[in-house]
Amino acid sequence: VQLQASGGGLVQAGGSLRLSCAASGSIFSINLMAWHRQAPGKQRELVALISSSGTPTYAGFVKGRFTISRDNANNTIYLQMNNLNTEDTAVYYCATGPRPGPGISWGQGTQVTVSS
Fold it and tell me: Can you tell me the distance from the alpha carbon of 20 to that of 80, in angstroms, rounded to the nearest whole number?
């Protein structure tokens, strides 16, 4: 499956963004969909996961600010990000799993920039 991420942009600290990730095929049978991010000079890190049943898991730094969701009917996952801070500046990627590996598909990334 191919993934297309969108929704990034420039936002002031404290603001919100909603990222979308549209899949070219069905995500119904994909157990875990994920959002990752990579800041300049840093390794890519997992932001959030969502299971096929809709159960979310978040990285500790999210601290209740982000919400991951999935719409299996429309083959799309979302990441609602609130109360953004400058440390959230990164390229955000959607993926069909929690970590790189064989068979994992990645979107092209969408830039999120948070200004102070």
Answer: 9
Give dist(CA 19, CA 5) in Å, integer.
7
**Diameter over CA atoms, the chain:** 41
Tens of pLDDT, residue by residue, the chain (116 residues): 899 999 999 999 999 999 999 999 888 888 999 999 999 999 999 999 999 999 999 999 998 999 999 999 999 999 999 999 999 999 999 999 998 888 899 999 999 999 99
**Distance in angstroms (rounded) separating the CA atoms of residues 2 and 106:** 7
